[in-house]
Write a structure and sequence with these properties.
The complex is a heterodimer. By secondary structure, chain A is mostly helical. Chain A is 73% helix and 0% strand. The C terminus of chain A is likely disordered. The chains are: A mainly alpha, B mainly alpha.
């Protein structure tokens, strides 16, 4: 039983670390701010989820697990709010995403309306 | 051992994100990267509690998670309206 817990915990912790590095690489390499936002959300969902659940598996049914659960719920509900606020502020300040093709139908201003 | 591996991955990710904080061409890139730094610091604090055998560090992680979103929203409101105490009727974040 201990070996099973150790294996699950190894898998979750190392997987979460790998997803964090992938998200950070995407944040560094993506071409514009909207795609960087997309890459950063990998850290907020899979990175946080896998690492926190791995620590919860490691500590068993204790008060520490409840506190880790509070961190998990907090990050899961606040990071989409922050991402949405960043995206709305970018649209408000007229930061335009880089589109591979022109989806505006020739209109000036570059307001992208197509669902893609 | 596995906590050291997770900690190493988190520190590498933090270094990569900090490069984007320094390089970021617009303020929004810096806000996105700063938000990611906050999330990674929450994770580093949670793992550090296990590395040092002191699970009370998770309380600090909860505090950082609460402050992170408030800081992000405050910075965005500042760069959207010009000041933090603006009397816009509709605050539609």
């Amino acid at each position: 039983m201990d070996a099973v817990i150790e294996i699950i915990s190894w898998f979750l912790l190392i997987g979460g670390g790998v997803f964090c590095v992938i998200g950070a690489l995407g944040l560094l390499r993506m071409p514009d701010a909207f795609t960087r936002l997309h890459a950063a959300s990998v850290i907020d969902t899979l990175g946080v989820g896998m690492i926190i659940v791995g620590l919860m598996v490691q500590s068993g049914w204790t008060l520490t697990t409840a506190r880790l659960g509070i961190v998990l719920i907090l990050v899961f509900f606040t990071s989409p709010v922050a991402s949405h606020a960043i995206a709305r502020a970018m649209r408000h300040r007229e930061v335009e995403p880089i589109l591979s093709e022109d989806r505006t139908g020739g209109r000036a201003g570059g307001q992208s309306t197509g669902a893609g | 051992m596995m906590f050291a591996g997770a900690m190493l991955a988190l520190l590498v990710a933090l270094a990569l994100v900090l490069v984007r904080v320094i390089k970021g061409p617009t303020v929004f890139d810096r806000v996105i990267a700063g938000n990611a730094v906050g999330t990674l610091s929450v994770l580093i604090l949670a793992v550090m509690g296990y590395v040092f055998g002191r699970p009370a560090f998770i309380d600090l992680a909860i505090t950082y998670a609460l402050l992170n979103v408030i800081g992000t929203i405050a910075i965005l409101k500042f760069f959207r309206y010009g000041d933090l105490g603006s009397s816009e009727d509709e605050v539609d974040f």
